[in-house]
Amino acid sequence: MPHSTEPDVQTRWLSPDELTAWRAFSRMIAKLQWELESHLQQTAELSFVEYHALAMLSEHARHTMRMSELADLTNASLSRLSHLVKRLEQRELVRREPDPDNGRYTNAILTEKGHATLVAAAPAHVAKVRALVIDALTPAQLRHFGAGAERIIRRIDDASPLSDRPRSR
Questions:
Q1: Strands laid side by side in the 64-66 sheet
Q2: How far is the C-alpha of 122 from the C-alpha of 124, rounded, in Å?
């Protein structure tokens, strides 16, 4: 058994119902991520995080965001996002420029080609999300699912405030 870093903590093992729910949730996360990733690769030649970055840029004024803000919204470290944006730059979907308001920051900017790529990819992606998630739940279940997900996200964000892990908004 692994050595615990917390002294004298009694482990609260999962009950059979909790274990069943946890395993179903874990399988769902892995399968959903794989399915969406594969579908985006096949239909748009984009990874899930590439699509997400393009979508986040498209929703901001002038299709521009500071790299640090984009890293936060895509749940990527600045280093990982820098590599991602470099790949998107090579495909002419995004460009980087110094922030005109503060040269210490770098902005990521969605190009016209990047916007066109996103617009072309969005209908199939939304249809896949709808088919796999939205239409599988009643409106009430969807509200509860969303509320539960937000509670989990807040706990994750609160669990390690000093880490370099990006925080959700």
A1: 64-66, 106-110, 94-98
A2: 6
CA dist 110 and 65 (Å) reads 9
- Higher-confidence residue: 160 or 74? 74
How far apart (Å, rounded) are the C-alpha atoms in residues 113 and 86?
15
Q: Quick check: helix, strand or coil at residue 36?
A: helix
- Alpha-helical segments (H) within 3-111: 16-44, 48-58, 67-74, 78-90
pLDDT at 165 over 90: no
Backbone angles phi, psi at 153, to 5 degrees: -60, -45
Residue 65 has φ and ψ, to the nearest 5°, of -145, 150
Q: Residues 34-70, buried b or exposed e (16+ Cβ, 10 A)?
A: eebeebbeeebebebbbbbbbbbbeebeebbbbbebb
CA dihedral 107, 111, 117, 118 (to 10 degrees): 40
Q: Which residues contact 89 (CB under 8 A, 6 or more apart)?
A: 95, 96
- What pLDDT does 157 receive? 86
Q: What is the pLDDT of residues 47-100, one digit of tens each?
A: 999 999 999 999 999 999 999 999 999 988 989 999 999 999 999 999 999 999
Task: Judge whether 33 and 40 are in contact, CB under 8 Å.
Answer: no
Report the length, in residues, of the chain.
169
Q: How many CA atoms lie within 13 A of 130 on its CB side?
A: 6
